[in-house]
UniProtKB/TrEMBL annotation:
It comes from Friedmanniomyces endolithicus. Its main location: nucleus. GO terms for cellular component: nucleus; ribonuclease MRP complex; ribonuclease P complex. Residues 29-74 are annotated as: Disordered. This is Ribonuclease P protein subunit. Residues 55-64 have a biased composition (Basic residues). Coiled coil: none annotated. One of its GO terms (molecular function) is ribonuclease P RNA binding. The keyword Nucleus applies.
């Protein structure tokens, strides 16, 4: 007789638990429905818009030219100077323009000054453009390079390419080399004797960078023991 109340209580608890689970998990659970067949007009309009955007994107890509690779540039010899243009006379006007450019950035173009201070000229020289400069090798680890002279036609990261008086293109490495160049003063009318040109010696090791990259570099005076 004592087991009957126990079975009655267990059966009641099971019914309440099942009722609670059914109410919370099934009956009161929201059912999210999505139409299986969307509006045909809306679907067609979205498809036309997507196709129109893809077509416009493809046209923009086709109009923009693809840049050449390094291999293609070498094959086309884009950065090489043709043999018929390796003439010293062609670059003499460029050298005269470069002299005027150097006089202006050094502050001696007005003719009132005939000298420059080394501390003020150093930062100017290291950030200057040397295309058109008439440079000469005065010191180098390789003795055969000393005395080589020509107008700079290409200033790369590690070399100066110059055209000599004999219409020859020579490549001068910057490493362990000292270059010398002159900046002559402009002759003006009703003036006396023209001052001697400004002479500068530059260490190639400090110029081992592309011309645009040297604009923000700082100048440091030091002795190079390797020369």
């Amino acid at each position: 007789m004592a087991s009957e109340p126990t079975e009655h209580i267990a059966e009641t608890l099971l019914k309440q638990t099942a009722s609670t689970i059914f109410r919370e998990k099934v009956k009161q659970r929201p059912l999210l429905l999505r139409p299986t067949s969307p509006d045909p007009d809306l679907n067609a309009r979205s498809k036309r818009q997507y196709e129109r955007l893809q077509k416009a994107k493809k046209q923009r890509k086709s109009n923009k030219p693809k840049p050449l690779s390094a291999k293609q540039k070498r094959a086309l010899s884009i950065h090489e100077i043709p043999k018929e243009q390796q003439k010293y006379a062609i670059y003499e006007p460029l050298h005269r323009m470069w002299c005027a450019y150097m006089r202006e950035i050094l502050g001696v173009s007005d003719g009132k000054r005939s000298y420059v201070d080394a501390n003020s000229a150093g930062p100017v020289l290291v950030s200057a453009d040397y295309h058109g400069a008439l440079v000469e090798v005065v010191r180098s680890r390789c003795g055969s390079r000393v005395g080589a002279r020509g107008i700079v036609v290409k200033d790369t990261k590690f070399t100066f390419e110059v055209v000599t008086v004999k219409d020859e293109l020579k490549i001068m490495p910057k490493e362990h080399t000292v270059f010398r160049f002159e900046v002559p003063f402009e002759r003006k009318e009703n003036c006396g004797e023209v001052p001697k040109p400004l002479v500068f010696d530059i260490h190639g090791n400090q110029f081992e960078a592309r011309a645009p990259d040297r604009a923000n570099r700082k100048f440091r005076q030091h002795f190079d023991p390797d020369l």
